[in-house]
Amino acid sequence: AVAGPTADWAACETEGSCEPIAGRARCEPGPAGGGGLNCGFLAMASEKPVVAVTCTAPVNIAVIKYWGKRDEDLVLPINSSLSVTLHQDQLKTTTTAAISKDFTEDRIWLNGREEDVGQPRLQACLREIRRLARKRRSAGDEDPVALGLSYKVHIASVNNFPTAAGLASSAAGYACLAYTLARVYGVESDLSEVARRGSGSACRSLYGGFVEWQMGERADGKDSIARQVAPESHWPELRVLILVVSAEKKLTGSTAGMQTSVETSPLLRFRAEAVVPARMAEMTRCVQERDFPGFAQLTMKDSNQFHATCLDTFPPISYLSDTSRRIMHLVHRFNAHHGQTEVAYTFDAGPNAVVFALRDTVPEFVAAVRHCFPPESNGDKFLKGLPVPPVPLSDELKAALDVDPTPGGIKYIIATQVGPGPQILEDPHAHLLGPDGLPKPAA
């Protein structure tokens, strides 16, 4: 994880500690999963002008929605939420963080474009990571690593999916930022608060599988943390289809939207206090027992209620499009034809649908989507991600769907599954920043 490790450093990364080399002090064990990253700080001044770490983090999709904060600065939610972590083979953020005594200022690049490093959410994450790093250093006898705390950081981050289009890009992005910075600065504590300060739902992307974000009760937010309800291996038959309706940036951002909802929607307050607690308990049961019909119905009901609170906001907010509503119609007609709940939709703050189904149901549902939303010109690229075998659609199901086809209504489908939490990329070639601390040229 350290840029260009020597053989000695590689051994240190493998073992987690190393003996003195050429008079250097003994290295401390690095963070869990990160090996001996701290060795980089001890040798950095004389041998390694840049220390870089690259990590990836996943997208998560809430099935019990988070909408509304009781504390804007600390990003504390008015209700708990529960999400499914999607597999990074299909959707992920990759982030490289590098520190050097030669850097003159903090800088950040997102998808190849330099952004304002002074953004309040980004600054909150940086301050919290550096505070935790100082706390850890002050607890030790030796303090050579503290030199790194005065160094500026360069950050480069890329998404392999549309940004700001309602696909939880900020959640993956800030989870990846928190996880990567923690490894650069040697922070080992729970990162829920760091990620949450960037984007509330980002704390859920710190874990794989099925994840609960507990709203907490404390004013300082110390108990507002994420925890894993079940690992990614718990429900291997569960599949996820992302139906991309639009990759355009949404008109009303999540932060502004939920703030207006908290101020003006009585339905939102009722939802948070009277509805969500029971739904959290029921959704946890459905996940633990792999009860798909229960999971699916509750997922759809909670999505619908979330969007109802958006309409109850004044002025009203509408994240759904006509195509979004046609997808909802398709799902309900598909289920009615089969006489049971076989697929479920959920929509975050955007028009794109996330559909849950069991593995054996996916081919027929994808065929139904193709029937209702024929690809205009990208038929061979319409389906991305996990392979889905083509199957014919029965005349009975076509009749049951009862729709006028909408060509091009869905741009493409991403087929994926439940996946793991953040990962460290050990290969130095994976770094997005070069030895000079600037983004590598695009391949």
From TrEMBL:
The record lists the catalysed reaction(s) as:
(R)-5-diphosphomevalonate + ATP = isopentenyl diphosphate + ADP + phosphate + CO2
Occurrences of domain Mvd1 C-terminal (ranges): 240-425
Q: In which pathway does it act?
A: Steroid biosynthesis; cholesterol biosynthesis
Entry superkingdom: Eukaryota
All copies of domain Diphosphomevalonate decarboxylase-like N-terminal, residue ranges: 57-226
How is this protein annotated for GO cellular component?
cytosol
- Gene Ontology biological-process annotations: cholesterol biosynthetic process; isopentenyl diphosphate biosynthetic process, mevalonate pathway
Q: Does the keyword rRNA processing apply?
A: no
What is any Pfam family matched here? MVD-like_N
* Keywords recorded for this protein, A-Z: ATP-binding, Cholesterol biosynthesis, Cholesterol metabolism, Lipid biosynthesis, Lipid metabolism, Lyase, Nucleotide-binding, Steroid biosynthesis, Steroid metabolism, Sterol biosynthesis, Sterol metabolism
Documented EC number(s): 4.1.1.33
* InterPro entries linked: GHMP_kinase_C_sf, Mev_decarb, Mev_diP_decarb, MVD-like_N, Mvd1_C, Ribosomal_Su5_D2-typ_SF, Ribsml_uS5_D2-typ_fold_subgr
Recorded GO molecular functions are: ATP binding; diphosphomevalonate decarboxylase activity
* Protein role: Catalyzes the ATP dependent decarboxylation of (R)-5-diphosphomevalonate to form isopentenyl diphosphate (IPP). Functions in the mevalonate (MVA) pathway leading to isopentenyl diphosphate (IPP), a key precursor for the biosynthesis of isoprenoids and sterol synthesis.
Family that this chain belongs to: Belongs to the diphosphomevalonate decarboxylase family.
What's the protein called, per UniProt?
Answer: Diphosphomevalonate decarboxylase
Lineage of origin = Eukaryota, Metazoa, Chordata, Craniata, Vertebrata
